[in-house]
Specification:
Radius of gyration: 17 Å
Order of helices and strands: EHHEEEHEHH
Helix content: 25-40%
Number of helices: 5
Largest sheet: 5 strands, mixed
Structural class: alpha+beta
Length: 159
Amino acid sequence: MVEIRKAERQDVPLLLEFIRGIARFGKMEDGVIASAEVLEREMFDEHRSEAVFAVVDGREVGFALYFYNFSTFIGHSGLYLEDLFVWPEERGKGYGKALLLHLVKIAHEHHCGRMEWMSLDWNKPANDFYRSLGAVPIDECTVYRLDAAAIERLSKDVV
């Protein structure tokens, strides 16, 4: 039986372990610069994001990290799923689905107008799973990103 529990301040090292795990899976380990101090401040002091764990027999087997955004078109907040990750040896047991459905429940309780996330194009098992739940890819959009260096550079042009 899977239990879903909210991450707490003392879980920061565990959150970093999951973040590194998802980075390894996505072949993006070099991109992880998050630290315990940053996660603690951003998540538990500033309340900018939240996380939940899937727990089985007292052991965390997966996690999901999310935050709220706002859609001007629909006039409602939305829940944005930043990361959903289940340890590879625990996949196929329904833990990822339990995490996602828990977030659906949170989105419903908060009257969110939508729930969104990104998925790597090459991650066919994840994409098939999302489609099986009724999620649809937004093919007509491209994700753009300004990293910290670009933000710093551009901020100098702001009067």
